[in-house]
Amino acid sequence: GILWGLPVPVLTILTALYVTNQPVTLGNIINCYQTQPFQWLCLAHPIIFAIVFGTLGTMASDRENKIASLLNTMSNLIDHTEYDMILVVLPNGQIEQSNALLRKTFHYSRKEILSMKVQSLIEFREDCNWEAIMTILKQQTRWQGEFTAITEDGRSFPLELTISHNVGQNDHQIETLICYLKDITTRKQFQE
């Protein structure tokens, strides 16, 4: 801030000396400050800039740190939830993040799951595939349905899939989806 504010007092003092046709000397500069009180206000300009830009920079830094902390907390929360299997997925189905319960249930490592698409974990129906769900989600922010999940070892189980999404700034396109997967084996057995 101080560096951005320095040109103001330098230019005003040099202009004052030029207008009065005086050479640039320390004595003439001091005389300018004694005879022109306006020069003191200009001299305060770098300090005012330092305070304003320093405060704004600190506020922006604090905001960035709070956002980073919140994202880290949310990431940890997703990874450590014990009740639902959670995926963060791109619109094309590419998995961006998963929690430990999902990896344990499907028998995949973190590295393996991040190289997969959600279509590899869920047996979608012809009448309700991933593309059809994405089309529906362009009109609403939440969708839910029942499918069959397929684990790495080939085991399958009934699954309730709930998908919600946030809308991005660019043309209101879906940027990421949060998928909640729930094993509904017990519910299905109870219904039978």
How would you summarize the topology of this molecule?
Elements: H1 2-5, H2 7-19, H3 26-35, H4 38-80, E1 85-89, E2 95-98, H5 100-106, H6 110-114, E3 122-123, H7 130-137, E4 142-150, E5 156-167, E6 174-183, H8 185-191
Antiparallel strand pairs: 1-2, 1-6, 3-4, 4-5, 5-6
Give me some keywords for this one:
single chain; 192 residues; alpha+beta; six-stranded antiparallel beta sheet; 8 helices; 51% helix; 22% strand
Mean pLDDT: 82
Radius of gyration: 31 Å
Counting DSSP H or I runs of 4 or more residues, the number of helices is 8
Largest sheet: 6 strands, antiparallel
Strand arrangement, major sheet: 2-1-6-5-4-3
End-to-end distance: 72 Å
> Outline, from the CA principal axes?
rod-shaped
Judged by helices, strands and strand pairing, the structural class is alpha+beta
Order of helices and strands: HHHHEEHHEHEEEH
Number of strands: 6
Q: How much helical structure, as a percent, in the residues? A: 40-55%
Q: Kindly estimate the percentage of residues that lie in beta strands according to DSSP.
A: 15-25%
Q: Poorly predicted ranges (pLDDT <50, ≥5 residues)? A: none
If you had to describe this structure to a student in words, what would you say it looks like?
The protein has 192 residues and is of the alpha+beta class. The chain contains 8 helices and 6 strands, in the order ααααββααβαβββα. The protein has helices spanning 2-5, 7-19, 26-35, 38-80, 100-106, 110-114, 130-137, 185-191, and strands at residues 85-89, 95-98, 122-123, 142-150, 156-167, 174-183. Strands 2-1-6-5-4-3 form a 6-stranded antiparallel sheet. The mean pLDDT is 82.
